[in-house]
Amino acid sequence: MPSVPSETIGALAVSESSLDSGTDGTGTGNSHSMTDSVRCDLLADCTAEWLSSMEALRKDLVRSVPAHCALHCFGAALRGQMGQSASKMSLYGMSKETDIIDEFWSHSWHSEPWKKVLCLLFLKNGVAAAVAGTVACLVGCALTIDGSLPNGVPFEGISLWGTALGIFSYLLTLLLWRPWKSVFLDIGCINQEDASAKTQGILSMGGILKQSRTMLVLWDVTWVQRLWCIFEFAAFLKSRGSTMAKTPLIRPILFGACALTIFGFTCMVMFVMIFLFSLGFRAALLPSVGAIFFFILYPAAVTFRDYFWSMDTLAEQLRNFCIANSKCHCCSTGHPDRSVPCDREIVLRCIRRWFGSEKTFEDTVRALLPSLFAEQLGRFGFPYWLLLVATCPMLWSLLDLTVSHWLRGDHFWQFWLGASGGWWLGAHPFAAGLFFYGAKVLRAPARSRLRDVLKNLCVIALNLPVLVLTFGLNEILIIFQMPTYLTAIIAGSIHISLAVTLWFSPFGLRHRSSGTLEQEAPAVATDGMDESAGI
Ligand SMILES: [Zn+2]
C-alpha cells in the first residue's frame, strides 16, 4: 500500500474540492515559480499514486447513509439547501462507517437539483408508492361497496373514492417512504466542515468506490463534462476489472419529471373519461376522448421529441468524449493558488495508471456508455416498470368504475374489472410505446414552425390505431354476444399481448438510425485494464 505524504493532505486541505463547487479558492499565491511547479508535480504524483491504489486512508472514512436520509426533506442535501454548517453536520452525523456500500450515487452538482431529487424519489419510492396507492384504492372500493363511504361522489352513479385514496397514498408514500439501502452521497458521507477531514475523504474515494456494490449514475449532459464524475466512473470500472460483474446503473435525471408528468396526465384523462361515462354519452365518447387526447398529447409530443433529440446530443457527446474537454473547479477559476496541483493532472495520472493511457479509457467510455444506455433504458428510452408506476391512476379509476357497476347490479363490472388490468398493463403501454416511437422517429426539429406542428400531429396520429383498438376492440367483441367475463378476458389478453410484443419481443418496433445510442457499440476495451500499470 503506497504511503501518503503528509504534505499531500496538508496541501490539498487548502485546495478547492470539486465535490463542493459552491466554495471559492482563497489561495494567496501570486507568482508561479519553478519551485511551485516542481512541488505541484510531486504532490500530483503522490496523490495520484494513492488515489489509484483504491484504498481508504482510514476505515472510518468509508461511510454511507440510508437512502431516506439522503432524500430527507425532499432531498434538501441535493438541492443545496444545507448551507448551514449545522445542517451539513447533521446529515454527516447520520452517516456510519461501513464495509460495504450498497450504492454509490454519482451526480453532477451542475445539474438541476429538483430533477435529480424527483428522479431519485421515483427510483427509490416509486414501486412502494404504487403498491401503497393500490392497497388504498382497494380499501376505498371495499368501503364504497360496504356503504361506509357515500356512493355517487363526485359523479352521479360513479364514486371515485378508490382513486382519491390511491392518489393521496401514492403521493404521501412517494415523499415519505424510507428506503434503507445504504448509499454514498458525497455531501453526506464526507465531512464538509473540516478541510483536512474533507481532503482525507476525497483521497479515500478510490477505496470508497471499491467497496460499493454498484454505482447509480444520475445522468444529465453536465455529468460527462465534470472531471470528478469521470474520475468516479473510471475508478468504478477499474475496481470491477475486466469481468464487469456489476455494471453501473445509468438513469437520466429527466425520468422523475417525465414520470410525474405522465402521472398527472393520467389523472386528468381518467377523470374526464369517467365524467363522460357518468353522462352516459357513449356515442359521443370517441370524439370527446380524441379531443382530450389531442390537447394533452400535443405538449407531450413536443416534450418527447425534445427528449429524444437531446439523446442524439448525448450520443454525439459520447462519440466525441475526450477527458481534455471535461471541466473542474480549479481550472475554471484559473488556479489562484499555484502551490496546489491541478485536479486534472491528478485525475489524468490516475487514469493512465488504471487504463494505460487516456485514449484507452476514452475508447472504453465511448463503447460502454452507449451500450449501457441502450440496454438499461429499453427500446423506447423509458422503462416499462416506471410507466406502470406512473399510470396507476388508470388502474384505480377503472376499479372505481367496476365498483359502480357492481353496485348497480349489472354484469358490466366484469368487463371493467378486466379492462382495469388490460388497459393498465396492455393498452396504455402499447399506446405509449407507439407514441415514444413516433416521437423518436420524428425527433429532429423541422425547418419551419408549420412543419414542426405537422410533425407533432403525426406523432399524435400514431395513437389513433390504439384508440380504435382500445375502444373498438371491446365493441367488436360485444357484437359476438359472448359472456361479459369472456369479453373482458379476451380483450385484456389481446391488449397485454400487444404491449409485450411491442416492448419486449424481438419483433417489436426498434428505430435505428445513425447517431443514436442504440447503434451496436464496439467491444468494451477492458481487457488491458488489469495489466495496465497501477495497483
Ligand atoms: Zn485545474
From TrEMBL:
Residues 15-33 have a biased composition (Low complexity). The lineage of its organism: Eukaryota, Sar, Alveolata, Dinophyceae, Suessiales. The keyword Magnesium does not apply. Keywords: Membrane, Transmembrane, Transmembrane helix. Residues 15-34 are annotated as: Disordered. It comes from Cladocopium goreaui. It comes from the Eukaryota. The chain crosses the membrane at residues 117-145, 157-177, 253-277, 283-304, 384-407, 413-437, 457-479, 485-504. This is CCHC-type domain-containing protein.
